[in-house]
Amino acid sequence: MQKLSTIALLLIFFATVSTAQNLSIENVYKVALRNSDAIREGSEVKGYYFFYVSDKIDKKTNEYTLQITDQSLKKLKDVKFLDSKDVSIIESSFNGTDLIFLLYNDDARTFEYQVYGADGKKKYTYNRQLSKKEKRFLEASYLNDDEDKNYKGLYPVEGRGFISNMPSREDKDYTFQLDYFSTEKRKQWSYIPTVGAKRFIGDYLGTFNGVVYLEVLKFTGMMDQKPDSYLVGLDLETGKQLFEKSTEQGKFKFYPASMSVVNDGKAYIFGEYFNPNGNIFKDKSLGFGFWNVNEKGEVLSEKYNSWDLDMGKHLSVSSKGKIDDFGFMFLHNMVQTADGSIFAIGEGYQKTASALGIATTLLSRGGNNFSVLKMKVTDMILICFDKDFNVKSAQIFDKNANKQELPSGYEFVSTPLIGKILRDFGVFDYSYTQMNKDFSSFTVCFSDYERGKDYKGTTFNAITYADGKITTDKIKTKSQASKSVVLPGKQGQVLILDYYKKDKKMEAHFEKLN
After folding, report:
1. What would the mean pLDDT of 109-133 be, rounded to a whole number?
2. For position 430, what pLDDT does the model report?
3. Global confidence as pTM
4. Is there a contact between 211 and 235 (Cβ–Cβ < 8 Å)?
5. Which end of the chain is more exposed for a tag (fewer CB within 10 A), N or C?
6. Nearest of 374, 377, 340, 349 to residue 359 by alpha carbon
7. Distance between CA atoms of 483 and 466, rounded to whole angstroms?
8. Beta-carbon neighbour count of residue 497 at 10 Å?
9. Which of 89, 101, 26 is nearest to 62 (CA)?
10. Closest CA to 269 of 341, 211, 194
11. Which residues contact 360 (CB under 8 A, 6 or more apart)?
């Protein structure tokens, strides 16, 4: 009898484990998989959230569901609410403690930012009314009906709130609006530059020690091809501008692209640099650099690595910044391991001729919506630096190229700026980087699409650094699903999320990495 009870308990245990490691969600009427993600504390996965349209109540009303699970996919909570069918879920983000969802009401021309705790309890709602001019402007970029588009405009501020950055129109000026939404208390502020130029492009770099860092390009007019670049700092609590400093007054013209905080507790801004008389729109960069900047915008240290001298020792690189068969480099992330080494994770991209753009230009005699150039996203790159950012090694990881058509006029946009545009529109294949607890190893994850004889479909790929060695792994993710996405799991595994449109369901399961 005791033996039978033990067997029964084991069966119950394994059944429970099996159920917890898989998830099936029914009645999924509409979903953008970008609005499902891992809930992480640092690099450790604590759970998952899934946001989707769960029912159509009537011709004017939809039911929306936010489902939260633990790290084993055991359901913890369902949050349901009703809203207009004109509402679409644009984007979501998690800041370590809270979730935010951006909902857009096309009929009312409103953005609604809904903030939930990780327990699923709704905390705050923030609203923004769009003018007709703003709506038309945003429909050309941020707002579109393509569920596969992954425009990035929401950024987490760890444990504090979220930053939203998107294009805007103010009277006759083309600018951007940066908003901060607190999750500690109901508080928000906005920053909209309108003075000193006719056109502004703003790029959120990151937040560190209570300062929000931006790069702002200022144009004197729509045809200006020599914009001025500034590093701008805003107070996280108030939105007050703390500093605005030119990035072109040093020994090089430096154009910030991203910011990372490494283990020494310092924030470093990465970007490409040009000759003092160089033109970002026409000239090629000399290389890439790193600035350590304090809360006053003062550059405490700077390090520049040239394409030909520093990178040329490890890769075949032209003096114009183009790596053979790789193109130009966009930096996605930087991490530092326990031994002090710093790794930069990048991806290649290059301009190439567009048959579609050329044909439509000829047929329409110049009046078309496509550029004569398109972008090709190429391979992944991993660069290892010492603690002083001297290049120690560099390795390229091959993947199949994907191509992106560009709107008319983008042939005149600088290559570094196009890299940011590709990032914001989710064109790159990079997914995420995951570090272990003691900083001894990390994994870089990215997607690919194979067109071989034996397999044709998407793959999920991992580059892992451990014990001083680099290994790679690949998971074939092709299935009968309409759409699939890969999310982080605990170290050594990933979560595959599949959406079956015809069956109106999502299914999730874990896969191990070798």
Report:
1. 90
2. 94
3. 0.86
4. yes
5. N
6. 374
7. 32
8. 23
9. 89
10. 211
11. 368, 369, 370
